[in-house]
Specification:
By secondary structure, this protein is of the alpha+beta class. The chain is built from 4 helices and 6 strands; from the N terminus they run ααβααβββββ. It has a 4-stranded antiparallel sheet with strand order 3-4-5-6, with no helix packed on it. The relative contact order is 0.10.
C-alpha cells in the first residue's frame, strides 16, 4: 500500500492500494479493503515519521486512531518510527503511552566499530529482557544474541 508517492512513477507498477492524500478516512477505507482482500493478521506502517513532518499537530491522534482501527480489525500493528542518530526519544511526542510495545534498534559506535543493538523498552503483559542485546542482520533475518549484552559508553 502506498501513501507516500501516491502511485506516481514506477510505484504504480508495484502498489495495488494507493492513498492520494494523507486523509485518515481514506487511509482507513483503503486499509480495510486491503486487510479484507488478503486476510491480513499483521500490518506494518513504515513509517509514522512522515506524519510528524507533514502533520505534527495531528500525528499522535492519527496514530492512535490507526492503532484502534487495526485492533478492531483483529490485526497486530507495527508502527516504525525513525529518529536521528543520537536522539533518545521514540520518534514522536506522546505515542509511547498509547502503544503496547516499543522495540528500539540502535547502531552505535563502540571502540571505533559500529555495533547494532536491540532493546525492548516496553512490552505490555509480558516479562522481557531489560538488557541491550547485540544483533546482526543476515539473509535469514535478524539474529539476536540474547545471552550477550552490549554496554554503551
Amino acid at each position: 500500500m502506498d501513501t507516500f508517492t501516491a502511485g506516481i512513477g514506477r510505484s504504480k507498477e508495484f502498489e495495488k492500494y494507493v492513498v492520494q492524500e494523507l486523509d485518515v478516512k481514506e487511509l482507513v477505507d483503503v486499509l480495510r479493503q486491503a486487510i479484507r482482500d488478503i486476510n491480513a493478521k499483521r500490518v506494518v506502517v513504515d513509517s509514522v515519521t512522515t506524519l510528524y513532518i507533514n502533520k505534527p499537530a495531528a500525528a499522535r491522534g492519527i496514530i492512535l486512531q490507526l492503532k484502534r482501527f487495526l485492533a478492531g480489525m483483529g490485526c497486530t500493528s507495527i508502527f516504525i518510527s525513525q529518529i536521528s542518530a543520537g536522539e533518545h526519544g521514540f520518534g514522536g511526542p506522546g505515542v509511547e503511552h498509547g502503544v503496547d510495545g516499543i522495540i528500539r534498534l540502535d547502531l552505535d559506535e563502540i571502540d571505533g566499530e559500529l555495533k547494532r543493538s536491540i532493546v525492548v523498552w516496553k512490552m505490555r503483559g509480558t516479562a522481557h529482557s531489560m538488557k541491550r542485546h547485540p544483533f546482526i542482520i543476515t539473509q535469514n533475518g535478524i539474529e539476536v544474541f540474547s545471552l550477550q549484552t552490549l554496554r554503551l559508553r
